[in-house]
Amino acid sequence: MNDSIGLIGLGSLGLPLAENILAAGHPLTVYNRTPHKAKPLGDKGATVAASASEVAQTCRYVITLLSDDAALKEVTLTDEFARNLGADGIHISMSTIAPQTARQLAEHHARFDARYVAAPIFGRPAAVAAKQAWVCVSGDAEAKEQVKPILSAIVAQGLYDFGDEPSTANVVKLAGNFMIGAAMEAMAEAMTVAEKNGVSRQALIDMFSSTMFASPIYKNYGTMIARQVYDENVGFRLPLGLKDMNLVLQMASEVKAPMPLAQLVQSRLVSALAKGRENWDWTGLAYGASEDAGTHS
Amino acid sequence: MNDSIGLIGLGSLGLPLAENILAAGHPLTVYNRTPHKAKPLGDKGATVAASASEVAQTCRYVITLLSDDAALKEVTLTDEFARNLGADGIHISMSTIAPQTARQLAEHHARFDARYVAAPIFGRPAAVAAKQAWVCVSGDAEAKEQVKPILSAIVAQGLYDFGDEPSTANVVKLAGNFMIGAAMEAMAEAMTVAEKNGVSRQALIDMFSSTMFASPIYKNYGTMIARQVYDENVGFRLPLGLKDMNLVLQMASEVKAPMPLAQLVQSRLVSALAKGRENWDWTGLAYGASEDAGTHS
């Protein structure tokens, strides 16, 4: 069972990841709470397990990609899961979760000699499929060294190591999602004021995303925000964006670091959901600036 | 006098620009309100004029790089200046000013058949010296075509044309400075919360400025904000940052486009000046997030 990989959670990131694991030639065991998502992978050669604990029993490496802290704790913060994972086992936790949850899981698993590596992922589904995501890792040093080549082979174009503390990779992940949200709000306000002054939204972002802000976030999200189309190509839904921004503010409150810009981004997400936009991509938070300016309704 | 260039304003951007104009082989006439700054350029072959109107009389192209709208209007919104500039003359206005000021100047000059091209510049002094700035232009189409090769030869690594309306380049410039301020606040909050969670400020920005935010603003300003050193290498002083953010908010108010993030950035600049930081670089607005979190004082 040395190179067998388990994957728990077959959402928009989990599914392409599963395909990559199979393509890389690893034996794969999957588990999803709603079983119908696992079926097509079973047809492609994956083993479909009946529970998370069963995955831990048969796989040395167990990746989790679940939607939130509660779902993750429900399936992995159990004695059975950690015992089945055992002394050789490594839980590779890729969800965006609170740093506190990461610490809790690492301590829990350690009681059964199992190890926990935090490996949250930056990348939308297409980037995951193309193995072009960026992954930050933290946790047990030896476990990390085993995990890194696997992550490189199945998902990451780049790995960033933030040390031995299991929670720090999640801190970085939350800080990064906050910075993306902040960049979206900045682009939204800039495009709105420019548009009302007769400058095309697209021309504005074409210049900035080719010069001072020549980077993936400003290019890709900038084009979506310029077009104001938020219900196509939905890579990361608004409710998940709000969940993450709530985690950012919770973390900020715990360490006593006021984040007024994070609060602004969170309010945009809350407002978008108040308007029934739960199926929009989270770039849709940018629509708030236009609505406030009376240019869209 | 066909290729003679006048330059009014020898501040931190004007001086390196003057050197570039001389190096490109153009006859150069300079004027600065405080004359001692012009002297070294006179020693290098520039003609030192006694007034802005004299510059307009002897040069076909007159560049202005003055600190604010009031200074610009004082020296160029006069009948004498526009009359001296005349039918062949082009005023190349590179300061960051209100769109309304640009319209006013273009209309004024037109009464004397002189033309106005807005060409505000993105670039700190070192970038200007290296001809690596980005310039957005707008205004009279024929005048712009004459001006573009000059700007490419003396300052710009790239030119972006925003049409015939004289004010639009200034709209873009203000939107861009706002986006820089917003990015600095985002980095400041992200680094502060990360630091209080045990993640190095530099490690955080090293990752982000190499991946999702791999762009000049996040790399260069990010390093300054990670180090928290704001009184060395001062390329753009805090009071000028506040002046620009006030122009952003004034423009936003005029067209009725609420910009809550611009207000937050403006408040950071106001607070920094309240604390006596007028000689800091404007990246120093980032210190506010640290102070609010009790990590610096």
Chain-wise SSE layout:
The structure is a homodimer of 297-residue chains.
Chain A: E1 5-8, H1 14-23, E2 28-31, H2 39-43, E3 47-48, H3 52-58, E4 61-64, H4 69-76, H5 79-85, E5 90-93, H6 99-110, E6 115-118, E7 121-122, H7 125-129, E8 133-139, H8 141-154, E9 156-161, H9 168-196, H10 201-208, H11 216-227, H12 238-255, H13 260-274, H14 287-292
Parallel strand pairs in A: 1-2, 1-4, 2-3, 4-5, 5-6, 8-9
Antiparallel strand pairs in A: 6-8, 7-8
Helix pairs in contact in A: 3-5, 9-10, 9-11, 9-12, 9-13, 10-11, 12-13
Q: Using the coordinates above, name the CATH class of the largest domain in chain A.
A: Alpha Beta
What's the structural domain tally of chain A?
Answer: 2
Briefly note the CATH topology name of the largest domain in chain A.
Rossmann fold
- Give the N-terminus to C-terminus distance of chain A in angstroms: 56 Å
The average pLDDT of chain A is: 96
Strand content of chain A: 5-15%
* Overall number of strands of chain A: 9
**Oligomerization state of this entry?**
homodimer
Give a short account of the largest sheet of chain A: 9 strands, mixed
Briefly note the structural class of the backbone of chain A. Answer: alpha/beta
CATH superfamily of the largest domain in chain A: NAD(P)-binding Rossmann-like Domain
N-to-C series of helices and strands of chain A: EHEHEHEHHEHEEHEHEHHHHHH
Pfam family, one (chains A, B): NAD_binding_11
InterPro entries (chains A, B): 6-PGluconate_DH-like_C_sf, 6PGD_dom2, 6PGDH_NADP-bd, HIBADH-like_NADP-bd, HIBADH-related, HIBADH-related_NP60_sf, NAD(P)-bd_dom_sf
Organism (chains A, B): Nibrella saemangeumensis
Domain 3-hydroxyisobutyrate dehydrogenase-like NAD-binding (chains A, B): 169-284
